[in-house]
Amino acid sequence: MGCTVSKEQNEQNNQVDTYLRQAGKDAMLDFRVLLLGAGESGKSTVVKQLKSIYKITVDDAELQSYAANIHKNTVLCMQVLLEAGETLNIELSNPETKKRANTVRSFQFEQDTKQMPVSIGLDIEELWKDQDIQSVWERRSEFWFLDATPYYFENIQRFLEDDFRPTEEDCIMTRVRTTGISVTEFDEGPVHFRVVDVGGQRNERKKWIHCFDDVKALLFVVNLAGYDQVMFEDPTQNRMQESLTLFGQICNNPIFAETPTFLMLNKKDLFEQMIQKTDLSKCFPEYKGGADTKVALEYIKNQFQSKIQTSNKTLHTSYIAARYKKDIKFTWDEVKNELLEENKKILLKATRDIKKKNTSSPSK
Length: 364
Ligand SMILES: Nc1nc2c(ncn2[C@@H]2O[C@H](COP(=O)(O)OP(=O)(O)OP(=O)(O)O)[C@@H](O)[C@H]2O)c(=O)[nH]1
Ligand SMILES: [Mg+2]
Prior knowledge:
binds guanosine-5'-triphosphate, binds magnesium ion, magnesium, GTP binding, Gprotein_alpha_su, 2 domains, alpha/beta, G-protein subunit alpha 8, transducer, Rossmann fold, GI Alpha 1, domain 2-like
C-alpha cells in the first residue's frame, strides 16, 4: 500500500513539474535575467561559469575558437606593454630585448592564422622577464591593458604546445569582447532561464534598450580593480567612475523600478592585491579607510547604493571573483532564491491548480 501511495505521489510530482514546465514555455515561468555593466567588468565570464554549472558543453569548434583567441590575447597584451613603454619613455636597455620587442611589435596575425608562431611566443616569454618591461607593467594604471595579462604570459609554454587544448580555466580567462546581444538558456526545475549578455563598451550600450522589457532580475557587474584603471574606449576616464555613472543611469530607469537588482562587485582577487599598493582615495578622495579590504569593499558598495534615488529599491550585493566557479554558484543561488521568493505566488498557484485538477478527477 505504502508503495502505491509513493508511486502516486511521484506521479503527481511529475505532473506538477510537467505543468510548470509547460507554464514556463508559455512565458509564465520564463525568467529573463539581464547582465549589465561596463566593458570588461566580467559579464561574459559569469555566463561562461553558468554554462559550466548547468553542464552546457563546449564543443570542439568553440574550443578551437578559445585557443585562437587566447593566442591573440597573448600577443596583444605584449604589444600593449611595448606601446605603453614608448609612450611612457621607458627605454629598453638590453639590445636583445630591443630586438625581440621590434619583432613582436610588428607581428600581425594573417587572416587564417590561428596560432602565434613559436618564435613569437618565446620572444614574449623573454620580454615578460625583462626588468624594463616590468617597469612598464608597474605603471599599468596609466594605460589600458587586459586584466588577464600575467595569466597569458605565465602559461605561454603550454599555449605553444602542438596539441594545446584550452583548459576550463583558459576558457574563463580568454577575453572576447561581446558585440550585440547573446542569450544563454537552461532549465532549473520548472523555470526556464534566459540569461541575456550584452556588450558593455560605450558603443555597444545603445543596443541595451532592446533587452529592457520583461526582465525578472538585473545583474549589474562591476570590475572592482577599476578604481585604479583607465578605460579602453577613453584612457582618460577611470573605470570605476564610469561604472558608477552607468549604474546610476540603469538603476534609476523607471523600467527597472520593480526589478530585483543584484550588484556583483567582481574581480575581488585583483582588488585584494591592488588595495595593498594603491589607496582607494586615488578614486574616491574622501576615503579614509586605508588598506583594510573589508572597509574598502563596504565603502565601494555604499557608493553604488547611494546612486539609487528611490528608497524602496533593495540592492543585493555580492563580492566575487567570477574566475572562480564557486563564487558564481553561490551568487547564482542567491539570485534564484530571491526570484523564487518573489514569484512564489505564481509557483504556488500553479501547484495548487494541478493538485485541484488531480483530486477532482481521481485516477483510474
Ligand atoms: N582576475 C580576474 N579576471 C577576471 C575575473 N572576471 C573576469 N575576468 C577577466 O576579465 C576579462 C573581461 O571579462 P569579460 O567577461 O569578457 O567582460 P565583459 O563584461 O563581458 O566585457 P564586454 O563584453 O566588453 O562587455 C576576461 O579576460 C576575464 O578573464 C575575475 O574575477 N578575476
Ligand atoms: Mg562580454
